[in-house]
Write a structure and sequence with these properties.
This protein is of the alpha/beta class. It contains twelve helices and ten strands. It binds guanosine-5'-monophosphate and manganese (II) ion (MN).
Length: 244
């Protein structure tokens, strides 16, 4: 679970759930090592059902929004909406489903219908990797989402490149004008953070603030010290180093 932070309050606003496999030798496998296999295997359905159930339980337990990344293959499957209804509908705190901009734009009519169904179940929508691969500005008006996640490549490039900076600034203003929140992905340096805060981004996520954490660490954090999950009073990473 990787925390993301609200700039206005400086506090953690939610977690993005990320899957890792730990084998018996404690070796960690990342999605890039297994996602293609999984998506084309008979295990996909069980895996997804497990993931949705897990998120639902954690949201109820931790009382904080949790995002889940959904692949194109799953998103297009008619059973997907049924499973979301079973596990994520009308939770006390809204879950967030992340889909890539690519997927959204590729099949805009179908996607819009599914998204509207999801939103009726009180599920929020975030657009992942926003800005990559498509002419995003013209497609923005067709996207019905709660959060735009600005791709890490822009966050990296904007520090030394004026044009990238202008692009990030424009994405943020446009999103604001269209009633969407913005989240900067992959924030790794203080300089990136300062520029983004100055531009009015709503949320920050990245190694500067926190790496993804195992469930056990989140449990420890939630245990009474929630208020310290803030980048204003103490950076989350240093808090972790001192306390855990
Ligand atoms: O595509 P998506 O945004 O879902 O990818 C999230 C991935 O990005 C996770 O695997 C996470 O570990 C990684 N990640 C998160 N924050 C950072 C960061 O600050 N720098 C880098 N290089 N990777 C990050
Ligand atoms: Mn994501």
């Amino acid at each position: 679970y990787q925390p993301y932070f609200e700039v206005k309050s400086g506090k953690v606003a939610g977690f993005e759930s990320l899957v890792r496999i730990r084998d018996i030798n404690a070796h960690i496998y990342y999605p890039k090592d297994f996602i293609d296999f999984l998506e084309n295997s008979v295990y996909l359905k069980d895996f997804e059902e497990w993931a949705l159930k897990e998120i639902s339980e954690k949201i109820k337990k931790w009382q904080i929004p949790i995002s889940i990344n959904i692949s194109a293959k799953t998103f297009g499957n008619p059973l997907f909406l049924e499973e979301v209804e079973k596990y994520l509908k009308d939770l006390p705190v809204s879950p967030v489903i992340e889909i890539t901009e690519r997927l959204y734009i590729k099949n805009i009519k179908t996607t819009k219908k599914i998204v509207s169904n999801l939103r009726n179940m009180n599920v929020k929508i975030a657009i992942d990797d926003f800005g990559t691969g498509y002419s995003s500005l013209s497609s923005l008006k067709d996207i019905d989402a709660d959060i735009l996640k600005i791709d890490m490549s822009f966050i990296k490039a904007m520090v030394n490149d004026k044009k990238s900076r202008a692009l990030v600034k424009t994405i943020i203003s446009l999103a604001q004008a269209l009633g969407m929140k913005t989240l900067a992905e992959g924030v790794e340096t203080q300089q990136q953070k300062d520029i983004l805060v100055d531009m009015g981004v709503d949320y920050l996520q990245g190694f500067l603030l926190s790496k993804p954490l195992p469930e056990e660490d989140i449990e420890k954090l939630i245990g009474g010290t929630y208020d310290r999950l803030s980048f204003d009073c103490s950076s989350f990473s240093s808090w972790k180093r001192n306390k855990v």
